[in-house]
Amino acid sequence: MDLKRAIMELQCEMVAERNLVNPKNISWLQYDILSQVKKLEKVLPSDLSIILGITRTKLSKALKGLKSMGYIEQFPNKLDGRELYTSLSNEGSKLLEEISKKHNSIFEIASKSFTEEEQEIFIRLSNILSNELRKNRLEKDE
């Protein structure tokens, strides 16, 4: 199997797994937003759009939906009241915990499928590719 096909198949399997762990039927973009907000604790939409590689308009629409579902909270930036910081609400934290529990099944399968040495190799290679993808996306926005 060549590299291109292997990456495409892994991506398809990961998307299928995401479908199984989405209990509240939020979009993938909304899930990604919640994950980044959790990681960063509070974030400005301008920064979030760069991190996720999406337009401010698309982000704004997704944030509006998440806010109406009660998964995020927004509050003004004290330095510039026009910008709103975004953070997770208690409901958003609970949702991500639910999803995280279901992600454990993927971890368990990987743990059983790979030897310890293969796990270390997979981690290293996954991190290299993830970092390079992120770097290339961020450079396009500069």
UniProtKB/TrEMBL annotation:
Gene3D superfamilies given in the database record: Winged helix-like DNA-binding domain superfamily/Winged helix DNA-binding domain
Recorded coiled-coil stretches: none
KW Transcription (keyword) present: yes
InterPro entries: HTH_MarR-typ, WH-like_DNA-bd_sf, WH_DNA-bd_sf
Tagged with keyword DNA-binding: yes
Domain HTH marR-type: 1-131
Transmembrane segments: none
Keywords from the UniProt entry: DNA-binding, Transcription, Transcription regulation
PANTHER family the record matches: TRANSCRIPTIONAL REGULATOR, MARR (PTHR42756), TRANSCRIPTIONAL REPRESSOR OF EMRAB OPERON (PTHR42756:SF1)
This protein's name: MarR family winged helix-turn-helix transcriptional regulator
Organism expressing this protein natively: Peptococcus simiae
Lineage per the UniProt record: Bacteria, Bacillati, Bacillota, Clostridia, Eubacteriales
